[in-house]
Design goal:
Structural class: alpha+beta
Strand order of the largest sheet: 1-2-3
Shape: globular
Order of helices and strands: EEEHHH
Oligomer: single chain
Helix content: 25-40%
Distance between the termini: 27 Å
Number of helices: 3
């Protein structure tokens, strides 16, 4: 399982992080909450408060698959372009 986080700047707002698992964006959150989500994916120690995100993370953790969410090739994002501002 390939887990990455990308730091993004929203217009006139603080930085937020995007959780990317196997090249598919899963959710966006503030850095403090993102650490809890990653800890939950890695070893299950911090349980997320949001039930919808917890359900998705449980599926990823147990099946290591995202097939149910019908990610197609267009949903895969070139994160290098986003980092470089393209």
């Amino acid at each position: 399982m390939d887990i990455k986080t990308i730091k993004i700047k929203e217009y006139n707002a603080p930085y937020k992080m995007v959780l990317v698992v196997n090249g598919n964006p899963i959710c966006i959150a503030r850095p403090k909450r993102m650490t809890k989500l990653i800890n939950y994916l890695m070893n299950g120690s911090d349980i997320p408060e949001d039930g919808r995100i917890k359900k998705i993370l449980d599926e990823i953790k147990n099946n290591n698959t995202l097939a149910k969410y019908n990610f197609d090739s267009s949903s895969k994002v070139n994160w290098e372009d986003i980092k470089n501002g393209k």
